[in-house]
Amino acid sequence: MSEHNLTPPTPEHAPSVVVSEDTQQNSVVRFLFDDHGVRGEIVHLHEPVQKLLECVRAYPPCVKGLLLELAAAAVLIAATLKANGTVTVQIQCGKGPKALNFAFINIDKDLNFYGNVLSDEIKFTEASFKEMVGQGGIMVISAFPEGGTRYQGIVALDKDTMAEALEDYFRESEQLATSFLIQSDVATAYAGGMMLQIVPNIENNLESLHHLTTLAATLQPQELFELSLHESLRRLFWNDKIRVFDPEPVTYRCICSKERIFRVLAALSNDELSAMIAENKGIDMSCQSCGKVYHVTIDELKDLLTAKQQSAADNKASADSSASADSSAGNASSASADKTQGPSIEA
Ligand SMILES: [Zn+2]
């Protein structure tokens, strides 16, 4: 990964752009300060957010905004943890008149993400972050490193904003002082944010974090959304030597597929499948994350039922031939195949 030194601009001459601004849209950029024990990331999302919003079309703007903020937060977290695997950021809501059920973003090592909000019928049009999270809500951050051990951290969501909750998380779970700035605009489909975090064992790193956070807090949403990421950094930290890494693109990509739909159908009972076939028309199944509709034809339903009956017959034959065989294992694995419809989709 290459680095670019951003020369601090002086008021007399405009800064030159190192990287094409186009490549900085829908990206996260990591950066380091030469003279401070602080590292950071800045993210700006538009197209991926447009696609994410299609999943929550029916919800009021406040709920959409919560999901957009969660997406920006998840990108910053995934880039920070460098888990080299999937990261899931979930909000498990607590109790309250405006509390949702669940919100999540799944993001893979290449920064492709998807997510959604699950809720009972929503009867409000406006609610704060705290109200939507409800009393006793928690944020669960899980990392599934490739070939490594699953890691999970939990933080209570008792703060007024998502940014404050994330700061608590990194202080408690990672023992790292961190500051977050998270912004979203539902009307124009933008989400973005910045994270600043101390680099351990460097003198005065906490003072530096405080100083740089104060500067970062002056970043206006329209600057974050309209300027290139490098330009935003230059304006904020014009007096500091800053080392900026190449932008890493972020895209929206749901993991649903026809194969996953078939796995969900395979978990149904033969009677349920037979009833569908008796209707003599195929069925439409939609992904609960992105809303994409998959049509399953009557012939595909029939093939599925035949395959299930065949595999049940094979299981019975092998169980008969070995009295000690535990034939329930096959059922258990097909019952757990429902990953597409539930909120806890694993990669
Ligand atoms: Zn999907």
Distinct small molecules bound, one entry per kind:
zinc ion
Separate helix tally: 11
Total number of beta strands: 15
What number of structural domains do the residues give? 2
Per CATH, which architecture of the largest domain?
Answer: 3-Layer(bab) Sandwich
CATH topology of the largest domain: Hsp33 domain
Largest sheet, in brief, is:
7 strands, antiparallel
Beta-strand content bin:
25-35%
Taking all residues together, what is the mean pLDDT? 85
What does the overall shape look like?
Answer: elongated
Cα-atom radius of gyration:
24 Å
User: Gap between N and C termini, in Å?
Assistant: 26 Å
Order of helices and strands: EEEHHEEEHEEHEEHHHEEEHHEEHH
Q: Percent helix among the residues?
A: 25-40%
Can you tell me the CATH class of the largest domain? Alpha Beta
Quick synopsis:
With 347 residues, this protein is α+β, with helices and mostly antiparallel strands. It is 35% helix and 25% strand.
What layout of secondary structure does this protein have?
Blueprint: E1 3-6, E2 27-33, E3 38-45, H1 47-55, H2 61-81, E4 85-92, E5 102-107, E6 112-118, H3 129-133, E7 138-145, E8 151-156, H4 162-173, E9 178-185, E10 190-198, H5 205-216, H6 221-226, H7 229-236, E11 242-245, E12 248-249, E13 251-252, H8 258-266, H9 270-278, E14 283-286, E15 293-296, H10 298-321, H11 328-335
Parallel strand pairs: 6-13
Antiparallel strand pairs: 1-11, 2-3, 2-11, 2-12, 3-10, 4-5, 4-7, 5-6, 7-8, 9-10, 14-15
Bound molecules: zinc ion.
Any overview of this molecule?
This protein has 347 residues and is an alpha+beta fold. The protein folds into two domains: 175 residues, Hsp33 domain (3-Layer(bab) Sandwich); 78 residues, HSP33 redox switch-like (CBS domain Like), CATH 3.90.1280. 35% of the residues lie in helices and 25% in strands. The chain contains eleven helices and 15 strands. The strands form three sheets. Strands 1, 2, 3, 9, 10, 11 and 12 form a seven-stranded antiparallel sheet that branches. A six-stranded mixed sheet has the order 8-7-4-5-6-13, with helices on one face. Helix 9 packs antiparallel against helix 10. The longest helix has 24 residues. It is elongated and about 75 Å long. It binds zinc ion. Zinc ion (ZN) binds next to loops.
